């Protein structure tokens, strides 16, 4: 009946609201994965009758970022007004930043590995 459908829709809407409010970037999650997850939640809200403004979604994504993005988050928040930030623009900037972090991490690991290989070994013939 109509009442049951309305109740189910209301429950789903509440569940998606909760997911949206509690969403945080997971330790192993990439920026793309975070955006996809938030987008799926937002689509669930839309399907059930609640449309979020882009500014609210942008704010949520910035709040959801892990600590390794704190520098980039501050830059984005201070150099632009939230009302002018676009989701696709934010995603592009964060993906680029994430790539540079990963590249730097890879270079650091490579340097550490090379340094370890170059360490002098113990003297020959000593017990």
Strand and helix map with partners:
Blueprint: H1 2-22, H2 31-47, H3 54-64, H4 70-79, H5 87-118
Helix pairs in contact: 1-2
Q: Describe the oligomeric state of these chains in a short phrase.
A: single chain
Mean pLDDT: 88
Return residue spans where pLDDT drops below 50 for at least 5 consecutive residues.
Answer: none
Radius of gyration equals 22 Å
Order of helical and strand elements: HHHHH
Q: Summarize the amount of helix as a percent range.
A: over 70%
What is the number of independent domains?
Answer: 1
Beta-strand proportion = under 5%
Query: Globular, elongated, flat, extended or rod-shaped: what is the shape?
Result: elongated
Straight-line N-to-C gap: 85 Å
SSE-based structural type = mainly alpha
Number of contiguous helices: 5
The total of beta strands comes to 0
Main sheet makeup: none
